[in-house]
Design goal:
CATH class of the largest domain: Alpha Beta
Radius of gyration: 27 Å
CATH topology of the largest domain: Alkaline Phosphatase, subunit A
CATH architecture of the largest domain: 3-Layer(aba) Sandwich
Structural class: alpha/beta
CATH superfamily of the largest domain: Alkaline Phosphatase, subunit A
Strand order of the largest sheet: 5-4-6-3-9-10
Strand content: 5-15%
Number of helices: 20
């Protein structure tokens, strides 16, 4: 390109827009740094394409127009594929690359030929396209900026317990018990697993009970969305009491990130001198990155940017929106398999995170002093990456993927809690709790199990919900007298998460 070409910059802006636009649409589910590499690659790619067209077509305005047209062709292919996937016409399955790619190639070739031969007033068109591309980028950049500002404000946000409710004089002295809060994301109650997946986990429950756990057989979660459920349990209250303005204004549910990261429960334990321990899980709004001990298998943001063997969730999503989705569809060919195997998929990274957390948890009792340990284990929630023996096997279908993952997880959990108890000088408090179940029709029927040393059978009850978990702990072990709240379940859907409906399911506590 000549120096004059830099006045025509819209091909570059159109080239980076897909990455920025996709990041804006998904910013609540990702860290901003996860999209940085995609943005850089898109920019370099667009610059290369623009340079190639400029070197071959001596009319700078026509070169810019055809370069921009190629960006549209390349970055929109995956969206087109997603739109027609699963659709058929006269018995033909349209959602196949073998049909869509040639069709899209014809459109690109025909459109490119028309632009090259027929386009007029190119200088004025380039000026308008420059302005249009700037306006196009401003919208997602503002969206990202506003959310990042909100995310910064959410870095704190727990509630304070009034002095009338919290009695410091009754807290016992000496070595206080470690408290382990382990969230098993999406783990359904045993009767629902048997009904929906023909999976009997009685052996797992019996093993826990032999260790000393209490398993409430009619447990239910208070909310059906992870963010609301964790905010409620970690602040010992209903979400309308935690952040009433967020619900009144119908803010994004990630507004509850602050009450999760810096919850009332965490504040109380820290005020008693507890150290906090937490783990990376890939879910930014539930990671306590500022805990005394934050355990991760990522060597900082530089490693996240430079380790091209690891593809994060956003990068995988971005590639599926481009022409590279056609390559992904052909990844089983002998030509591409060796290259594909060099890259770790997001599913492989998720499996590594789960295994890392379970292994690292076994060493946590060795940390001196009293500890409040929070592990949000994103399992047995999808993706289903384990078979019953713990081997990495990616299974798309919930059946058998979901029960397979539960069977492996059960083995690890039994071994883990035995290790924690065996290594603890003071008997610990261990909470195994699902934030919710899996299936929509019985989503609130979650699995729970509690190791309350010496008094578990006397203070726990079959219909206990997470909102009262820490109220029971503080009353039983720390001399408090916090009132228990009603054990009520409020279901809401992802597309209307503050429209709560009270639900309950028939249950036999003596089964």
């Amino acid at each position: 390109m000549t120096k004059k070409n830099w006045k025509i910059y819209y091909p570059l802006l159109l080239g980076i827009y897909p990455a920025i636009g996709l990041a804006a649409a998904n910013i609540s589910q990702m860290n901003l740094v996860d999209g940085l590499r995609s943005l850089l690659v898109a920019f370099v790619f667009s610059l290369g394409v623009y340079a190639l067209f400029s070197s071959r077509i001596h009319d700078e305005y026509r070169a810019a127009l055809l370069g921009a047209w190629f960006m549209v062709f390349f970055f929109s292919y995956g969206h087109v594929y997603s739109a027609v996937w699963g659709r058929s016409l006269f018995g033909f399955d349209l959602g196949r690359h073998r049909f869509i790619f040639p069709f899209w190639l014809v459109i690109f070739g025909g459109g490119g030929w028309l632009l090259y031969k027929k386009a007029k007033h190119l200088k004025s068109l380039s000026e308008y396209m420059n302005i249009f591309s700037i306006i196009l980028l401003i919208i997602p950049v503002v969206q990202i900026g506003m959310f990042e500002l909100q995310r910064y404000r959410l870095s704190s946000g727990g509630r304070n317990l009034s002095s009338e409710q919290w009695n410091t004089s009754t807290i016992p002295t000496g070595q206080l018990p470690d408290v382990y809060y382990i969230i098993l994301d999406g783990y359904s109650r045993d009767d629902m697993l048997l009904k929906n997946y023909d999976l009997n986990i009685n052996n797992f429950i019996n093993q826990l009970e032999e260790i000393g756990f209490y398993v409430p057989r009619c447990s239910q979660s208070n909310y059906g969305l992870t963010g609301l459920s964790l905010a409620s349990s970690l602040n010992m209250n209903t979400v309308d009491q935690i952040l009433p303005q967020a619900i009144l204004q119908h803010n994004n549910w990630v507004s509850f990130s602050g009450p999760i990261k810096h919850s009332l429960v965490r504040q109380i334990f820290e005020s008693m001198g507890y150290k906090t321990v937490s783990f990376q899980n890939g879910i930014w709004w539930s990671e306590w990155t500022d805990a005394n001990f934050f355990i991760t298998n990522v060597n900082g943001p530089v490693d996240a940017l430079t380790n091209f063997r690891q593809v994060n969730d956003f990068e995988a999503l971005f590639m599926r929106t481009t022409l590279l989705s056609a390559v992904e569809g052909a990844s089983t060919t002998k030509l591409l398999s060796p290259i594909i195997k060099l890259v770790k998929t997001p599913e492989e990274r998720r499996a590594e995170q789960v295994l890392m957390a379970l292994s690292a948890m076994e060493k946590v009792p060795e940390i001196p002093g009293s500890k409040f340990v929070f592990l949000h284990l994103v399992s047995p929630h999808e993706p289903y990456v384990f078979n019953p023996d713990g081997e990495f096997v990616l299974t798309q279908a919930a059946d058998p993927g979901y029960p397979n993952q539960i069977q492996y997880l059960n083995k690890r959990i039994v071994s883990l809690v035995k290790t924690i108890i065996g290594k603890s000088s003071t008997p610990p408090i261990i909470i195994l709790q699902a934030d919710h179940g899996r299936d929509t029709e019985v989503r609130m029927a979650n699995f729970e199990a509690y190791f309350f040393p010496k008094v578990g059978q006397t203070v726990l009850y079959p219909t206990e919900t997470p909102i009262n978990t820490f109220r029971l702990i503080f009353n039983t072990y720390f001399g408090q007298n916090l009132p228990l709240l009603p054990d009520i379940s409020y279901y809401s859907a992802y597309d209307d998460y503050y429209n709560f409906v009270k639900v309950s399911y028939p249950c036999n506590p003596d089964r």
